[in-house]
Amino acid sequence: MSPRVLLAALVCAGLCSAAALPSSGVQAQVYAQSQPQMRPTLSRLVRLAATPAGPGCIGNVYCLLLQDLPAAQLDDPSASGLWVKGNYRAQLEVWWSRDGRGLMLLDWDYRANVLGCGDWPCGTSDLYVHRYVSGQVRDEKFWRIGVPYRGQPWTEVKPGLPAAVRADASVRVQAFRQASGVQGELWLDVQLPEQGTELRVFVEADGARVPIYRLRWDAVRGVFVPARL
Description:
Layout: H1 3-20, H2 24-34, H3 42-49, H4 61-67, E1 73-75, E2 80-84, E3 88-96, E4 102-110, E5 125-133, E6 136-139, H5 142-145, H6 154-157, H7 163-180, E7 187-191, E8 199-205, E9 208-218, E10 223-227
Antiparallel strand pairs: 1-2, 2-3, 3-4, 4-5, 5-6, 7-8, 8-9, 9-10
Helix pairs in contact: 3-4
C-alpha cells in the first residue's frame, strides 16, 4: 500500500469513528433519561397533597396530617407513614412505578364523635388515593388502579376480576355467607399492608369480615393486579 493510500485510510478511520460517537450533549441527555427520578420524601408528598386547602382544612385530610407532621412516624425507605392521634389514626403507603410515578393510598379513620359537626371529617373512615407525577400530587380514581373503593358492592367488582381470581373469591364469599347467615349485598374493604407491598381485599357485613383475594403491585404499569389468596 502506498504512503498516500495508507494516510487516507488512517484519516478516514479517525473521522468515521468520531462521527459514529454521539456528542457529549447527546450522551448527557441519554444518561439523564436512563436515570430514575429522585423520589420525594413522605413529608414532601404530604405537603404537596395538602395544598391547596380551605379554612379549617375542610375537604383536605392531608391538611390535617401536615399540621401533625412532627408527631408522625415516617419511614421513607419503606414508603410508609403512620399518624396516631387522640381523635384519628392515619396510615399512608406509597408504591413507586419504574417511571418515577408514586401511587399514594391513605387509610383515614376519624375516631371523634362530635354531634352536629357535619359530614367531614367527623366520624368518617375512608380510603383516599392520589398519584405523584412530575412534582405534583393529583387526584386518582380507584377503578384506574385496580383497587375497589371502601364500601363498594361485591357484585360490582366481581365481574371484572380474572376468571381464576373470581372463582376462588366466590368460593370464599359463599363460605362467608353460610357462616354468617348474610344473604344480601356484601361490601368490600381494602386493608393496607403492615409489611410488604400487597393489599388484601375483604368482604364484610354486620361487623364480620373475611379476606377473599389480594392485590399485587405492578411496577411497570403502576397499578394493582388481582391474585388469589
